[in-house]
Write a structure and sequence with these properties.
single chain; two-stranded parallel ribbon; 44% helix; alpha/beta; elongated; 8 helices; five-stranded parallel sheet
């Protein structure tokens, strides 16, 4: 959040009033999006913190006299809905920058629109490595991506005493794959092992009995 505010501050000082889309003499319009409906609304609560931070900036006088105006959109953690939200923020609301994204699938789907528009984009919590790799000059991802997370989880699992049998449970969507694939590669490349069980459990599933039975039968040391 501090990085996002700093970026806005830098741009606000660098350009004269009305020289940039979404910037006037007294406002800076920022678009935000998160899953405020659907099965991932728990993650959407992170947007409360984002908006609270911008309110605090405004309470302290804004940025060089300009108050931040937040335009909120709901992506429902659905890529199609997320693309529509991003297009609206860019084409209809004419925001200066976008600060959003809890679901990697949504951000990856909307990324071409953001890159094409060339406006600054600050990720909130979407962690897929493909968001910032390959590099785009207007895209900022200030958190460890899923490649880092996947590899670190394997390294941690292998610190357990006598751990040799590692089981993996993941989603099959883009976010799940972006954690899963680096984890499996790390297990093979560094420890010369393959998962004893490699299972999927989708968001919204209410019965994990089949996965639990397979995990028990696998003899896994760490899941």
């Amino acid at each position: 959040l501090t990085a996002a505010a700093a970026m806005v501050c830098w741009f606000a000082q660098a350009v004269p009033a009305c020289a940039e889309e979404g910037v006037t003499d007294d406002t800076i319009r920022i678009g935000v999006f998160a899953p405020l409906s659907g099965s991932a609304t728990l993650f959407g609560k992170g947007l409360i913190g984002v908006e609270a931070y911008y309110r605090d900036v405004n309470a302290q006088g804004g940025i060089n006299g300009r108050k931040i105006e937040v335009v909120r959109e709901d992506d429902g953690c659905d890529p199609a809905k997320g693309i529509a939200a991003i297009k609206k923020l860019i084409g209809q609301d004419h925001v200066f920058m976008i600060h959003g994204g809890m679901c990697s699938g949504v951000v990856l789907a909307g990324l071409p629109e953001i890159v094409r528009a060339g406006i600054p984009y600050m990720d909130i919590a979407a962690a897929a490595g493909g968001i910032s790799n390959p590099y785009h000059a207007n895209v900022f991802q200030p958190l460890p991506n899923t490649g880092v997370v996947g590899r670190t989880m394997i390294d941690f699992a292998m610190t357990k005493p006598n751990a040799q049998k590692i089981a993996i449970v993941s989603h099959s969507d883009e976010w799940g794959k972006s954690n899963h694939d680096p984890a499996v590669a790390r297990l093979k490349d560094r420890y010369n092992l393959a998962p004893v069980a490699d299972l999927t459990l989708e968001r919204g599933d209410t019965d994990a009995t089949p996965q639990i039975l397979k995990l028990r039968n696998s003899g896994a040391d760490v899941i």
